[in-house]
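tool_call: predict_structure(chain=1)
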Amino acid sequence: MLMRVDLLKSPHRPWFMSLGLKFAKWRVGAFPGPPLTISYKPAFFQKDFISYIVRGMAGSGGWTKGEAELFASFVSKLNQCEFWLTAHAAVAALHLPQETLDAVLDDWTTADVLAKTRGALELLEVMTLHPQDITPEFIQKIKSYGLDDIAIQ
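tool_result:
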């Protein structure tokens, strides 16, 4: 049986984080995912999780800022999170052609993107929707698109 943490109820969340989340929900109509997760148990998440998100969204691992935002848009779409899809797509559109962004979000398997990007999109789709399918063989397949360990991380 799969159990999910109720991120809205946290005995560890400081009052000012609760207030910020309530303001975000009032302003945009939804609780933003990463801040909700980080504020669930700040002592655990703040140190490493925030730096991981910032590093990833800054375009590390050989990916540009536009590619990182494209990937975030793609995962947000897979997660059916309209809030973050809109936010990340807006930033991606500042760095990439709108046609590329639209094509990937419409059907990444037919989008005109580099093989390395296609491999990253396949990895992200499997990680998001079918993580149990990630095997050493699958990672080798992903590497055949031209991704190295740094890009995969």
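agent: The chain has nine helices and no strands. Proceeding to next step.
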